[in-house]
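Service request form, structural biology core

Requester: graduate student, group of Dr. S.
Request type: structure prediction, single chain
Budget code: on file
Notes: please return the result as structure tokens.

Sequence provided:
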Amino acid sequence: MIDALIPEKYMVEWSGWPLTDNRFGEEFDRDARIRMVMGGRRLIPYLLKNRRQLKGDILEIGPFFTPLLYSPELREVLPASASITFLENDRDALQWLRDQGACRLLNLDMNAVSFAEDLQQQLAGEVFDNIIISQVLNYVDYKSLLAELFTLVKSGGHLFINNVCDYGLPILFSGKRPSDNESVIAASLAAGFSIKEQRVIPKYFRKEPADRLILVLQRP
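Core staff response, request fulfilled:
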């Protein structure tokens, strides 16, 4: 059973998104949420592999109520001095993050016309040692976002990407999402990143429409 694939501590009855009032049907039912959590966790081995670089200021974008930086595996290795920031604009997810402990929140809509300006205004020139973005690219103008993230990473810093094209909630997909893994790679290079590690993971769940792309990028 799919239940056996996820630890009990990763619950999927999320604040503001109850299973009993799920307006997205089977695309966001219990099994779909478990697949979402398990898919996000596919990035953890690559974060652990680079744990010596996971220090300083870290920004995580996604995934929803199960941020990777709050996983037991990463909490064990993150130094106490690491400063964590989350970018999220769902009201309930923001409150959940506040309840988990000390972190900074950037309440911004990545699809807003003013996103880049709002982001720079809040950060006031601040950059990050590492940025993590998992299962988000289907919902945004990915080329513009990757270009913006390049400006937010310190020289020598990393951007960790986890994505399956056309996977998630189609009703919320952006018309400017990537069409395939090759387009994500091309956009990452066009933004100025170099590729430190690249892995394509074959489809694990039947519902996944494409292979999963893992990228560990670095700003020269």
